Backbone:
């Protein structure tokens, strides 16, 4: 009974953000004249569908986040992978599942290049990934004539649309949860996050962990590349760090999701965070705000939300400490 009650409380805390944001914008858009009504079933489905890309990229980043290996090249990997897989599919009239396989293999290979570069150079990952952003973005302007992808047929865009996008997201979340919570890799990652030197002394092979982490991240980036090209149907070449938009939209959900994971798990926390931010963006659009105002308001909202969740987590931790002290005193 106690465990069931605790699960209910944790579920309520986890879902409080998206529900609150949804209710607020339903009220505001109906109270403010000239606003677009918010909250229809079609709009909710659109929010969920457009959240899939962010969920996949955020999970790819989250694999390395506990060990502070922030891969800023992930956005360029998604775009380059999309161009390669989509171009091959168009040129050779490939099946969508073949395209998916090419996407996963390509993204994984690019992620492994990032991992090997980090291992051999032994400089901070943020520096390595910044350098590789330039390389990967340059390649988007070279491969297949440097034209990107002009058009992709509807039959190869199914995974980016309902209901397939939801199926992809759910399967990916299950795989992510298993790999990051119930494997030897997850155990070594937790040890490395607690202290690299100590973990190595305990027998954890850091280089092996790096290779596994980027292989896993590459898998999710491959899925993200499929969703990316499916959503847009065309892809422009990346330049001038433009691929960073894919990353920065996913970084905040990673941080929020890792805090919410205290009440659920990383996969659910990330998904809830992405959906919350997408709901917030849609709500601001319905109120008539442009993209610049949306970014300012969303950034402020996230900052306040992080501070609030940090306070909630601190109070929960304090309660656990007090309860443990009382149990020890009673013993």
Residues:
């Amino acid at each position: 009974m106690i465990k069931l009650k605790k699960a209910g409380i944790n579920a309520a805390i986890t879902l409080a953000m998206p529900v609150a944001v949804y209710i607020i914008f339903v009220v505001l858009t109906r109270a403010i004249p000239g606003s677009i009504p918010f909250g229809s079933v079609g709009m909710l489905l659109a929010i969920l569908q457009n959240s899939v890309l962010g969920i996949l990229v955020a999970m790819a980043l989250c694999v390395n986040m506990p060990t502070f290996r922030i891969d800023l090249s992930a956005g360029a990997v998604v775009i380059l992978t999309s161009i390669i897989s989509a171009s091959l599919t168009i040129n050779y009239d490939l099946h969508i599942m073949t395209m998916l396989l090419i996407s996963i293999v390509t993204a994984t290979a690019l992620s492994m290049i990032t991992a090997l570069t980090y291992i051999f150079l032994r400089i901070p990952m943020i520096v390595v990934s910044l350098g590789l952003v330039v390389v990967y973005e340059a390649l988007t302007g070279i491969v297949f004539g440097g034209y990107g992808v002009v058009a992709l047929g509807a039959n190869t865009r199914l995974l980016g649309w309902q209901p397939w996008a939801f199926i992809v997201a759910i399967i990916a979340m299950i795989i992510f949860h298993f790999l990051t919570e119930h494997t030897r890799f997850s155990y070594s990652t937790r040890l490395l996050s607690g202290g690299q030197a100590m973990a190595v002394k305990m027998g954890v092979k850091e280089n092996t962990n790096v290779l596994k982490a980027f292989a896993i991240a590459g898998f999710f980036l491959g899925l993200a590349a499929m969703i990316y090209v499916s959503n847009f149907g065309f892809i422009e070449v990346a330049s001038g760090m433009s691929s960073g938009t894919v990353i920065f939209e996913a970084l905040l959900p990673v941080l929020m999701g890792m805090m919410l994971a205290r009440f659920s798990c990383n996969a659910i926390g990330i998904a809830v965070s992405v959906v919350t931010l997408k709901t917030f963006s849609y709500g601001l659009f319905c109120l008539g705000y442009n993209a610049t105002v949306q970014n300012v308001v969303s950034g402020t909202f996230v900052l306040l939300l992080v501070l609030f969740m940090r306070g909630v987590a601190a109070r929960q931790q304090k309660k656990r400490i007090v309860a443990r002290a009382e149990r020890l005193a009673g013993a």
Remarks:
- DSSP finds twelve helices and no strands in the chain.
- Residues 16 and 52 are 20 Å apart (CA to CA).
- The chain has a mean pLDDT of 84.
